[in-house]
Amino acid sequence: MKKFDLFGMIESIKRVLLGIKYLVYFFILNSIYLILNTPNMTLEKWQEIKDIVQEKFEIIDSGTNDFENRPGTVEFIEFSGPLGKMRLEWTDQPLLLDKKTHGSKRIGSETKVEYVYSETERVNKFKAFKWDENILRWDEIEMEKGNYIF
Predict the structure, then answer these.
(1) Residue 136: DSSP 8-state
(2) Quick count: other Cβ atoms within 10 Å of Cβ 101?
(3) 43 SS3 class
(4) Helix %, strand %, coil % for the chain, to 5?
């Protein structure tokens, strides 16, 4: 009669479940990657990505920050996934139309820069970052088609 190895069976089940867990993570990350690599990243796609991340991963932090020296905001979400700690950012700001420099050529005079922004047109950027434990900072994940600006 064959001896029943309960410990070996439990370990096999653990390996199978772990494999399934990482397979699910792979499909989730792959779907995010496909959304990211579409030619037109839109606010709707950003909302889709946020919904997927909030549903499938542990959220570490999220929020919105205003720029200090110019109009616009950065919305971000940080989460823990199979690749480690990650951060996604969506930047929304008015289109820069003109940059005017005011000043004189006299010694000791000040120069002032005035920026003119559009009232109607907006610029959006999407960026993804991965936390680097070795140097304790966010490293931007380069996408094949670069940052999306539209």
Answers:
(1) T
(2) 8
(3) helix
(4) 30, 45, 25
Q: Which residue matches tokens 């996408």?
A: 143
Tokens of 16: 């199978």
Residue 67 CB-half CA count within 13 A: 11
Counted residue by residue, the chain has a size of 150
Q: Which amino acid is present at 132?
A: D
Q: For residue 45, which amino acid is it?
A: K
**Digit-coded pLDDT (tens) for 104-136:** 777 767 788 888 888 999 888 888 888 888 888
In tens, the pLDDT along 88-97 reads 999 999 988 8
DSSP state of 55: H
CB environment 62-88: b (16+ within 10 A), e (fewer): eeeeeeeeeebebbbbbbebeeebbbb
**Distances, alpha carbon 31 to alpha carbons 27, 45, 81, 133, in Å:** 6, 12, 14, 26
pLDDT in tens, 10-54: 666 666 666 666 666 666 666 666 655 555 678 888 898 889 888
